[in-house]
Amino acid sequence: MGRLLSGMLFGVGAGDPLSLAASALMLSAVALLACYLHARGATRVNPLDALREA
To answer: 16, exposed or middle or buried, with CB in 10 Å at 0-12, 13-18, 19+?
Structure first.
C-alpha cells in the first residue's frame, strides 16, 4: 500500500513517518468525533422511554 501511495503522491516515501503519523492521527480524530456525537445523542434519551420501546 505504501508503494502505491508513494507513486501517487509527490515527495512521499513508502515509509514516511510523518505521513503515517498524520494519517493515524486524522483517522483517530474522526473516530473519536463520531463516537462523541452518538454518545451525546444517547445521553438525551430518557432511560425509561428507551426501556419501554425496546
So the answer is: middle
Sign of torsion over alpha carbons 25, 28, 32, 34:
positive
Q: What is the pLDDT of residues 1-54, one digit of tens each?
A: 667 766 777 777 767 788 788 889 999 999 999 999 999 998 999 989 989 987
Question: 9 CB contacts (<8 Å, ≥6 apart)?
Answer: 19
Q: Give DSSP secondary structure letters for 11-45.
A: T--TT-HHHHHHHHHHHHHHHHHHHHHHHHHHHTS
